[in-house]
Design goal:
This protein is an alpha/beta fold. It has 2 domains: 14-136, Response regulator (Rossmann fold); 140-243, Orthogonal Bundle (Arc Repressor Mutant, subunit A). The protein has 8 helices and 13 strands. Strand 8 (158-160) and strand 9 form a beta hairpin. Helix 1 (22-34) crosses helix 5 (116-139) and helix 6 (171-182) packs across helix 8 (205-217).
């Protein structure tokens, strides 16, 4: 590959549908087109990779049961390379799969069979979250946050510890940490942390990402001093933050 994939021009939001079942793939793509999106059908991971060389979508819908790849690996790769929205749509209803998918950076997780209109609502919700985060980055030209000896680089999603250890955060973790760092010492509710008023109160994505951030930032994640729980209200990032 000798060039970078390009973002699509302004127009209908582009969504890649990675699904090996032709009937389900057509149903998902057809529903998206009916509601004004552009949908590209990818029957396997190889087809998705070919499309990604040409164009970065606004969102990928990913089935976990693929004939040529592990769907979790696809989710991990999408978040590490592109940071686009990811919705897992799968027949796997196990809690462990849901938690793993969210930990890898997926924005949402749906289990088949599904209601097409709910799928569209969740797609729109993810896209709104990403748009709000992009707007927040535009309003904040500084890209590096420093706090208590730590450094977070927003452009690369990298977090540097005072002892020199480094992590590359998932897109979901980076979005959440950015929300904290933009509003230190203020209580943020679950909706604010996700940037989405349509967040289900049963959604575990917030809890999973809070836990992962605490494992990195806290000396004792079970008794956190930096990301504090304010019972009945939300979470608070305690510390002074300087953007450079």
């Amino acid at each position: 590959m000798n060039h970078d994939p390009i973002r699509p021009p302004e127009g209908p939001r582009c969504i890649y549908v990675l699904e090996d079942d032709p009937a389900i793939c057509r149903l998902v793509a057809g529903t998206l087109v009916e509601f004004g999106f552009e949908a590209v059908e990818c029957p396997n991971a190889a087809a998705l990779r070919r499309q990604l060389l040409l164009r970065v979508p606004d969102l990928c819908i990913v089935d976990l049961g693929l004939p040529d790849a592990d769907g979790m690996d696809v989710v991990r790769d999408l978040q590490a390379r592109l940071g686009c929205g990811v919705l897992i749509l799968t027949g796997r209803g196990y809690v462990s799969d849901r938690v793993m998918g969210l930990e890898l950076g997926a924005d949402d997780y749906m289990v088949k069979p599904f209601e097409p209109r709910e799928l569209v609502a969740r797609v729109r919700s993810i896209l709104r979250r990403h748009e709000k985060m992009q707007g927040a980055h535009q309003d904040t030209p500084a890209q590096t946050a420093e706090f208590g000896g730590w450094r977070f680089h927003g452009q690369s999603n990298t977090l540097h510890a005072p002892d020199g250890q480094e992590w590359t955060l998932s897109a979901g973790e980076a979005r959440m940490l950015t929300q904290f760092l933009l509003r230190p010492n203020r209580i943020l509710d679950r909706e604010q942390l996700c940037g989405d008023r349509d967040l289900s109160p049963l959604d575990r994505g917030v809890d999973v990402r809070i836990s992962r951030l605490r494992r990195k930032l806290e000396s004792d994640p079970q008794n956190p001093k930096t990301i504090r729980t304010v019972y009945g209200a939300g979470y608070l990032f305690a510390g002074e933050v300087r953007w450079t």
